[in-house]
Specification:
two-stranded antiparallel sheet; 311 residues; globular; 12 helices
Length: 311
């Protein structure tokens, strides 16, 4: 399999944590219900490719996201392995109880930088949502769980347009003060550009959120995701979200296309000499397999190119 030439660049970390969101964010909007065993096999294959942080599912009400109604059953199929984390998204206190009852020790909550999306996604305004999350985060931390706080719509919103940096910083800061151990900045509709990303990361860090606890989550709607990753890494970020094969979108934001493909991310980082611990050939084989399960080709350019080369 062809591999990129390694040419390191200045100002980049020696290693990056790839936070894989394919099983949750990647599959949540699929129309046909995917068998639980297929989801478990997907996660096993991702583990085999070297990924060690895999967001597995969400404890959301099945009427909201039917694809994730099997959260308990899926977690029962996963092996507890040293050094492996299976974070899950929880939307409310009931979701947290379900997760903790299943032994989950990494959870995520999902806030928005904008009022419109917050109300569409959580049926609450930004302040109300943060108030709802306060006891959830506190209870999770008391139970020994790490808590990731997602901030969506950090670069733009389909209803409100450009999003002010101060809006994003305020939500990120408040989530951190509530006790979140990681803040993921999400360009949900993929409109961000590198200058925006650099400014945003610096502003969030300047507000007191340590860079080692900041992650970025980019959608590739306008083809800017990899450029935005590079800007974030140069600004000091060390954790990047991505989805195997470029799967995913957002059921509450129709303009949100697929996530940054993990293969595209790993190809770039390998070429820059940044360690990820991911076996690209195994990862491509995993996404080719999942594409067959879903009945359509992967949108990832790296998957398509390397799959053709291997054929």
């Amino acid at each position: 399999m062809y591999a990129p030439e390694v040419v390191p660049a200045d100002g980049l970390p020696a290693s990056v944590t790839v936070y894989e969101v394919g099983p949750r964010d990647g599959l949540q909007n699929e129309k046909g219900v995917i068998p639980t065993e297929a989801k478990a096999e997907f996660i096993r294959r991702l583990l085999g490719a070297g990924l060690r942080v895999i967001e597995a599912t969400s404890f959301v009400h099945p009427d909201w996201v039917p694809q994730l109604a099997d959260a308990e059953d899926l977690l029962d199929l996963l092996e507890d392995l040293p050094g492996v984390r299976y974070p899950v998204l929880v939307p409310n206190a009931r979701g947290l109880r379900r997760a903790l009852d299943r032994g989950v020790r990494d959870i995520a909550v999902f806030a928005s930088a904008t009022e419109t999306f917050s109300r569409r996604n959580l049926n609450r305004g930004v302040t109300e949502a943060l108030e709802m999350f306060a006891p959830i985060v506190a209870s999770a931390r008391e139970a020994g769980a790490g808590v990731r706080g997602y901030v969506s719509m950090v670069c733009g919103d389909p209803w409100e347009g450009v999003v002010g940096v101060d809006q994003v910083v305020e939500v990120a800061r408040r989530l951190f003060e509530l006790g979140c151990t990681e803040i993921s900045l999400g360009d949900t509709i993929g409109v961000g550009t590198p200058g925006q990303v650099t400014r945003l990361v610096r502003a969030v860090s300047g507000a007191g959120v340590p860079l080692e606890q900041v992650a970025v989550h980019f959608h590739d709607t306008y083809g800017q995701a990899l450029a935005n990753v590079l800007a974030a890494l140069q600004a000091g970020v060390r954790t990047v979200d991505s989805s195997a094969g470029g799967l995913g979108g957002c059921p509450y934001a129709e303009s949100a296309t697929g996530n940054l493909a993990t293969e595209d991310l790993v190809w770039q980082l390998q070429g820059l000499g940044v360690h990820t611990g991911v076996d690209l050939a195994e990862l491509v084989a995993t996404s080719v397999w999942m594409a067959r399960v879903l009945g359509r080709p992967s949108p990832s350019p790296v998957v398509r190119a390397l799959a053709r080369a291997a054929a």
